[in-house]
Amino acid sequence: MKKLFILFIWFCLGSQFLLAQTEQVNGFKLVTYNTKLSQPKSYLIPAVFTVYGFIALSDNALRNLNITTRNEIVEDHPNFKTSVDNYLQFSPTVATFALKLAGIHGEHNNWQSVRLYAESTLLMGLTTYAIKNTAQELRPDGSDHHSFPSGHTATAFAAAEMMRQEFKNTNPIISYTGYLAAGATGAIRMYNNKHYLGDVLAGAGIGIITTKAAYWLDHKLFKFSYQKRGSNID
């Protein structure tokens, strides 16, 4: 269990510090519009997570790691069952909008944030739905063939990345806290015997990538709404 704990601490905390890049907090920004896609290196960690998950579907060594990790969890916690993950996945979203309503400024106004959330959720949902129905991976508990990737984890990490994007300059510490809830969501999905390790890692990667893509797409489609204030995408 120590290996599993260390792994989850690494991907829910360490990865988002790598994703943070070398950001600077600017009190005032030039009136600019950033049409460039996020810097390639910011996609490295989520890409690794996603590729790992896909490889684990067919690679014997990684499949065995999925199974042994699952068996270790079941052996140590045979009666574990909770529904908290059904709600925890949405907590970064709730926190993001609650902070904005409380007066903590983000990179975008409330209307833009709602639009970005809708775009991110749509991209993430369509992606996970398409992959689930293509992969047809049996869940660890045998309940259905929608194990890969983890939709709960993708939802949580998509929201966590949005929280980071919104508050990375105005309140960097707060911006990273969504990853704690997202990491916990992924861990609980495994403890509930609903997903393998590869499912959760792929879900995390997909969630982050689709949110980044949504931010880039929104800045392309609604250029006019960003003319008065610059907004960095990474």
Give the overall form.
Answer: globular
Tell me the strand percentage band: under 5%
Order of helices and strands: HHHHHHHHHH
According to CATH, the fold-level topology is Vanadium-containing Chloroperoxidase, domain 1
Number of domains: 1
Number of strands: 0
Mean pLDDT: 85
Supply the helix-strand structural class.
mainly alpha
Write the layout of secondary structure elements.
Elements: H1 2-19, H2 44-56, H3 60-76, H4 85-88, H5 91-101, H6 110-135, H7 151-167, H8 172-176, H9 178-191, H10 197-221
Short description:
This protein has 234 residues and is an all-alpha fold. It has one domain: Vanadium-containing Chloroperoxidase, domain 1 (Up-down Bundle), CATH 1.20.144.
Give an overview of the whole structure.
The protein is mainly alpha-helical and 234 residues long. The chain has one domain (41-226): Vanadium-containing Chloroperoxidase, domain 1 (Up-down Bundle). Helix content is 64%, strand content 0%. It has ten helices and no strands. It has helices at 2-19, 44-56, 60-76, 85-88, 91-101, 110-135, 151-167, 172-176, 178-191, 197-221. Helix 6 crosses helix 10 (197-221). It is globular.
Key terms:
single chain, 234 residues, mainly alpha, Vanadium-containing Chloroperoxidase, domain 1, 10 helices, 64% helix, disordered N terminus
